[in-house]
Design goal:
The complex is a heterodimer. Chain A has six helices and two strands, in the order αααββααα. Chain A is mostly helical. Chain A has a single domain, classed as Arc Repressor Mutant, subunit A (Orthogonal Bundle), CATH 1.10.10.10. In chain A, a hairpin with a 5-residue loop joins β1 and β2. In chain A, α1 packs across α3, α1 packs across α4 and α1 crosses α6. Chain B is mainly α. In chain B, α1 crosses α2. Helices cover 60% and strands 6% of the residues of chain B. In chain B, 32% of the residues are buried. A two-stranded antiparallel sheet of chain B has the order 1-2. The chains are: A mainly alpha, B mainly alpha. At the A-B interface, α1, α4, α5 and α6 of A face α1, α5 and α6 of B.
Chain lengths: 144, 136
């Protein structure tokens, strides 16, 4: 049940911004090199995050990306939703009519509802703020 | 993050088998008719379930499939691992940059745990009981 690398790199990029972006905007190049992904791919992901209002851009020299929302309002669940469309692994959980089956009582849907709830509960409780604090506590804050 | 067709149809077919097998075997054509799943597809799914030791095939005119052990002893984790393989939300590949390794440990592993916990703690028998309770 793999997530795309987009979701994972998005969270890495956001964590990088939260930890190292305190003094001002960071360039895509710096973030991409910090988390070891290609700048072009990082840029593509950040465009999606910007469209969703999680980050902003500043033009000009010294410009780049910055977090545009408080870190405690950015959750892992939100990041997955932006990049994957949803945290739900089976479509019928959100939309019963997405099922092509005409069987009236689906005998397995309840399992998917339960799995989806478990994912959402965990992912929505994990905030960027908590993740950043733990990262700084573990690495001393300078562990680039 | 999606469960494959094999995982979705396979679970449905196995629950159907458990619901309708009262010590006797259930034919795939019956499951196919009840669940509106193609017989061909069910055959390939049951080959997997058999290889994983979850069902036993019985040959012959009255043949079909049986659960290989009591429904109480089959967890949903076992079933979905047989059908989907590793259920983790990410690929575990050796050395990672520090931020990635940190997030794997503290975020993605936590999500994996929440998924496996829910599946490990539900047996096929639990599910049958719930379905039975709902129906009455």
């Amino acid at each position: 049940m793999r997530l795309s690398t987009k979701s994972r790199y998005a969270l890495e990029g956001l964590l990088y911004l939260a930890v190292y972006g305190g003094a001002g905007p960071l360039s895509v190049k710096e973030i991409a090199s910090g988390i070891q992904v290609s700048p072009a791919y990082m840029e593509q992901i950040f465009v999606q995050l910007k469209r969703s209002g999680l980050i902003g851009t500043q033009r000009g020299s010294g410009g780049g990306f910055f977090l545009s929302r408080p870190e405690d309002t950015i959750t892992v669940g939100k990041v997955i939703e932006i990049l994957e469309g949803s945290t739900v692994p089976v479509r019928c959980v959100e939309n019963r009519s997405s099922c092509s089956g005409r069987v009236r009582h689906c005998i397995s849907r309840r399992v998917w509802v339960r799995v989806s709830d478990a994912i959402a509960e965990t992912a929505n409780a994990l905030t960027l703020k908590a993740i950043k604090d733990q990262f700084i506590a573990e690495t001393g804050g300078a562990g680039k | 993050m999606k469960i494959s067709t094999k995982g979705r149809y396979g679970l449905r077919a196995l629950i159907d088998l458990a619901l309708h097998s009262r010590g006797t075997c259930v034919s795939l054509s019956d499951i196919s008719a009840r669940q509106e799943l193609s017989l061909n597809y069910l055959e390939s799914i049951f080959a997997y379930l058999k290889k994983s030791g979850l069902v036993i095939g019985v040959a012959g005119a009255q043949g079909g499939y049986l659960l290989a052990k009591p429904a109480e002893q089959i967890t949903l984790l076992e079933v979905l691992t047989a059908l989907e393989g590793d259920l983790s939300v990410y690929d575990h590949i050796g050395a990672e940059p520090p931020i990635r390794a940190f997030l794997n440990r503290n975020v993605w592993d936590a999500i994996d745990r929440s998924i496996t916990d829910v599946l490990k703690n539900t047996s096929l028998a639990d599910l049958l009981e719930e379905l039975h309770t709902d129906a009455t």
